[in-house]
Amino acid sequence: xxxxxxxxxxxxxxxxAATVDVEEVVRFAQTLPNVVVARHYTYMCSDPGQALIKQDxxxxxxxxxxxxxxxxxxxxPTFRSVVAEKGVNPYQFEMANIREQNSxxxxxxxxxxxxxxELVAAAVAKVALLEPLEEREVExxxxxxxxxxxxxxxxxxxxxxxxxxxxxxxxxxxTVGGRMAQLSRTFPAMEDARxxxxxxxxxxxxxxxxxILTSSTLREIEGYIGNFKATILRRPRYVRADRxxxxxxxxxxxxxxxxxxxEFNAGLxxxxxxxxxxxxxxxxxxxxxxxxxxxxxxGKCGEGDTPPCVAxxxxxxxxxxxxxxxxxxxxxxxxxxxGFDLFDARLKPELGYGRYPNVITALEFERLxxxxxxxGGEIIVNGKKPQSVxxxxxxxxxxxxxxxxxxxxxxxxxxxKQALLVKEKLPEAKxxxxxxxxxxxxxxxxxxxxxxxxxxxxxxRGSVSEIYRKGDKLIVRADDTLLGRPVEVEADLVVxxxxxxxxxxxxxxxxxxxxxxxxxxxxAEAHPKLRPVDTASDGIFLAGTCQGPKDxxxxxxxxxxxxxxxxxxxxxxxxxxxxxxxxxxxxxxSGCGLCEAACAFGALKxxxxxxxxxxxxxxxxxxxxxxxxxxxxxxxxxxxxxxxTMVMVEALV
Amino acid sequence: xxxxxPKIIAFVCNWCTYAGADLAGTSRIQYPPNVRIVRLMCxxxxxxxxxxxxxxxxxxxxxxGGCHPGDCHYQSGNFKARRRVAILKKSLERLGLDPDRVxxxxxxxxxxxxxxxxxxxxxxxxxxxxxxxxxxxxAL
Lengths: 653, 140
Hints:
The complex is a heterodimer.
Chain A: E1 5-10, H1 22-29, E2 35-41, H2 47-60, E3 64-69, H3 72-85, E4 93-97, H4 99-103, H5 109-129, E5 136-139, E6 143-147, H6 151-162, E7 166-170, H7 193-205, E8 210-213, E9 216-224, E10 227-234, H8 249-253, E11 260-261, E12 270-271, E13 274-275, E14 287-288, H9 294-298, H10 308-312, E15 325-331, E16 333-336, E17 340-342, E18 359-361, H11 362-369, E19 388-395, H12 411-425, E20 430-435, H13 445-454, E21 458-470, E22 473-480, E23 485-491, E24 493-498, E25 500-502, H14 506-513, E26 540-542, H15 552-572, E27 574-577, E28 582-584, H16 594-598, E29 604-607, E30 612-615, H17 625-629, E31 635-637, H18 642-652
Parallel strand pairs in A: 1-2, 1-3, 3-4, 6-7, 6-16, 7-8, 16-26, 18-24, 19-20, 19-24, 20-21
Antiparallel strand pairs in A: 5-27, 9-10, 10-15, 11-12, 13-14, 17-25, 21-22, 22-23, 28-31, 29-30
Helix pairs in contact in A: 1-5, 2-3, 5-18, 6-7, 6-15, 11-12, 12-13
Chain B: E1 8-13, H1 17-26, E2 35-40, H2 48-57, E3 61-66, H3 77-94, E4 102-106, H4 112-129, H5 133-139
Helix pairs in contact in B: 1-4
């Protein structure tokens, strides 16, 4: 069928018409090949404007339409549905952007009119060659995978489970809980973090729709929105969950008892090679640390043939014959909640972390201040209660020298909280905070900062240049930028507000799921303002600090947003996938495989029988990288083919 | 030569540079009307033959716009574009075309000002350079 094109030039009130001679553009459009009708109208997107197009489609038997108006990012969906209503394929529609990229950025009427004519000519040339495309629908497997069992992952899992869908929650560590389990209290309400978290863990672990897989990592993920399949590697605990009562006799009997740095207490205490990470850990089952266990490493432990832990267990729960398992799970959507790492304070050697035992990180302070911590919640360093405590902001944040130009967002507030905890536990202690700026993110944050100052915490604006030892004290040297001179403050304890950095496994997760990362290394959202929990991959959502530093409240908010976004697909049971995909002409394809290597999404596979490339239209994201790689143009991106692009260039030059 | 108005064809990706050009519009940042934008989905989908076509047709300059390294909507398309443009520029020289007439720039969706500045700078550069000699060849 020959192309019958209608062209519509929009005034956009005076937005376009004041700079572009729309009548002149219409007269020009009428001379273009295949154009049957060309008109201009005040607002093409308005109801009468749309009616004009629909009427012409019927009257002139149009099979293609061009609208020259605003950006296609604005109204392409509007006009696509207008033409579709009258039986024109929505992909045989093209827009010429004569507002954002013409009338709004130029003032010379003659030049802008000429530019508009050329843009219309290019759109007309392209639309004549556009092929009809169909949007495809895929079914959604009614289950979700949540990666990471911290507060974000647990929250997202619970919301989806509550809506009636199955959730597989995969956690790398032997217990869920994540970083929040290590915190003392939360800002600004000073609630017990452990208590808040324990509630969530209890709800998630007892929910019939949630399967929690701890000590587990993803080995492989294949598929696409609606139809993902994961291979999950579950490491053995060497303790039978059905028998362990978490009595702890095994840990007491372990020959390495009290020798292994306890990661839960940030290394401030020591544990056995068989241990329970913390009291509320889920599952409440002891686990053997294979990196340290002598029996696993050397095949022998203790005097006799039976390792002491096995002998001590009254339930016979310890089972060294357990093996690594590979599990397979199928699901329709994925929520990534892999969390963060703490900045390594050793990278700021001038602050003396690792050299002076009384320079500690904020996380170590959290453990000291926690009732279940190594000191039972008492702030004791080197066996003494400190009389002077100095907090230092922005350690590893807003610091280009360590490659972290971003703000970690939570340190100002957790430092205010920690300063208040010192004041609460050691009312006589002098507390000084060195800061660059105080950024009181979070609701009630500014009031909380005021409270800290009101309770006698001294805030000094300035960056710390050095910490050195003088007798049994530390001297913190800084430039006080308000006084305009260097100052020295004596301290018994220095707490570094270490910033948040992307978890070291972020790169693996990004590669496995084909997710993009932003410049700071955190996982990238699809749009910073409008799609903050989506990723560029359909059906994969982000929750919590894997996307960037945030506090518990924001992590929970994002987790719930990710869960509702995922639920939109689960509830509908189907999803539309990209209609603009690559297509192979099997007559021309030589099966060389160059396009397969150019595809970042694994959408291309060689058909070994026919020796031609095949496109998985659901995996194809429509970028067109394959088409450029093809030496014979056998694979092309529909809607953006070389022919369609070349005619545009001809019209524009 | 003072009244010479160069013609620039811009091949830009949908997600960053096209959106950046739209932002220049919504922010009403003025720049010379010498550029014509062709929207593609990704800078990695810009075939070097498009650039050749534009230059042989007589375009005075070709601007290729993509997302900043690491920000590609399709993960690595802009890296592919970077390599292809580097190789293309070498080939252009051998073909007797001026590789300086091809600019590759990373312009994000939030950089409307940068888009306008880039066009302004490119127009100035091309005015100094003079018309693409292929334009006269076409006329012959």
